[in-house]
């Protein structure tokens, strides 16, 4: 389960870097575990389960830059 989350997190970073929007689908993950028709619709073999779900799409809005922030206050001693 943890490896699936790590893989999806990396996939999410790669998608966003290429301009693709992402959103975790936690409700789908939970529903697929308890609702047999959804499990069947996903075509999962017997004994397999959903370990993660991520929705992808082209974002409607684009942000030209990140918000301005104050510089980091770091003291080296």
List keywords for this structure.
two-stranded antiparallel sheet, 77 residues, alpha+beta
Task: Outline the structure in words.
With 77 residues, this protein is an alpha+beta fold. The protein has a domain at 24-59. The protein is 40% helix and 10% strand. It has 3 helices and 2 strands. A two-stranded antiparallel ribbon has the order 1-2. The longest helix has 16 residues, at 2-17.
Question: What is the strand and helix layout of this fold?
Answer:
Elements: H1 2-17, E1 21-24, H2 26-34, H3 36-41, E2 54-57
Antiparallel strand pairs: 1-2
Task: Classify the helix fraction into a percent range.
Answer: 40-55%
Strand order of the largest sheet: 1-2
* Average predicted confidence as pLDDT: 88
Largest β-sheet summary: 2 strands, antiparallel
Strand content: 5-15%
SSE pattern:
HEHHE
The structure class reads alpha+beta
Number of DSSP strand runs: 2
Q: Categorize the overall geometry.
A: elongated
Distance between the termini: 42 Å
Rg from alpha-carbon coordinates: 18 Å
Separate helix tally: 3
pLDDT < 50 stretches: none
In short:
The chain contains three helices and two strands; from the N terminus they run αβααβ. It is an alpha+beta fold and 77 residues long.
């Amino acid at each position: 389960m943890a490896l699936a989350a790590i893989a999806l997190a990396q996939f999410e970073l790669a998608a966003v870097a290429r301009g693709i929007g992402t959103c975790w689908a936690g409700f789908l993950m939970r529903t697929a575990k308890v609702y047999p028709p959804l499990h069947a619709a996903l075509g999962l073999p017997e004994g397999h389960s959903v370990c993660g779900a991520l929705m992808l799409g082209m974002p409607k809005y684009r942000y030209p830059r990140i918000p301005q922030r104050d510089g980091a206050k770091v003291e080296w001693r």
